[in-house]
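Archive entry. Fields below.
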Amino acid sequence: MAKRDSTPTDIELKRTEEPSELLRELVAHLRQNRTQLREEWVVRISETRLLTAMTKEEIFAEATSVYDSYVEALETEAFEALQAYARNLSERIIPRGVETHEVVGIVLLLRDVLARSLFAKYQTDFKKLNRILDAYEPAANRIANTVAVGFVQERERVIRQQQEAIRELSTPVLQVRERLLILPIIGVIDPQRARQLTEQLLRGIRTNRAKVVVIDITGVAAMDVTVANHLVQTVEASRLLGATVIVTGLSPEIAQTLVTIGVDLGKMNTVGDLQGGIEQAERLLGYKVASITEPN
Amino acid sequence: MEVPILKQGAFLIATFQAALSDADLNQLRMGLVQQVVKFRSRAVIVDVTAMDVMDSFASRTLREIAHMIRLRGAETVIVGIQPEVAFAMVQLGLTLEGVATALDLEEGLAYLNEKFKITNRR
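PREDICTED_STRUCTURE:
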């Protein structure tokens, strides 16, 4: 009964005191047996056919640095450093074609190899083994987590960077005549890019006082229903600013999509190609193109 | 809130202020049509440049104003819708269908002058 009444803090203190001592013992063991454990790990890696994109020398080199970082993380509990290391590692090996599951896989293998060595060392003292595992397991799990998350974060960063680059390829709004704007769209349009294009166009209409806009989508292979709706909205919003929109270059697929979503084609002014669109725009604006006759 | 209505020859120009309440809009609807009758105007330009939001009530009121004015044989042109407002409106499905629009007052007048080909000699 007396034991039950002990305050939580006493019990907590007891738990936190021991682990750090045990952790030191654990780390010492891992450092002492570094060569052997690392070797075992590399063998397991090739057995499970991970990191096939890398040569044996490369695997050995990376394994060494991962092992050392692993043990250091166990010792110092400096997980930010480990996460930075993981991001750095992925920056180096992603271009070589290493997948996330491989990275997570080798970290878990290392966790297993080290755990087994602990089982072996403390097999005669079950109670101590349990306490050592109490110290080891949370730290090892956190390491596996940290490395995986670091790896994924790096991939996400690359993807975001690429998305940004794609968006920046985005189209300028071009004035080709007084009151006439052209918006040539190329590539893949996602809802976000569609929205950006609309905002850009509306601002361009106001700035250039455009009365006609030709939106050319020859360079757009396909568009889903959401983006098609965005296109319709762009046409409607442009009208509210007093501009007429001519859409040119609709592929058969896009024409199908528009029909499927039931676009009121009466609202949409379309012409086959950009040339035709510009010609119609010029007519709307009252321009006439005449050839210059040769003198004499 | 009083909305200034100016006479420009055969046209009336109503400049909407930024924050018009529903009551203001209702008053305006009647007021504008009365002015069209009084001055036998050919058209009304409604300038909404100062409006930074356009909700469905305001949008519907504008359409109703245009329809009522058309029943008097006159044209309505809405001018000055801001890009952000236009974008928000179409997302809500408020397209002001059937109502003429122009970029600003200058364009609105140009549109009407072209349409009626009259000079302001009144």
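CURATOR_NOTE: Residues 5 and 14 of chain B are 4 Å apart (CA to CA).
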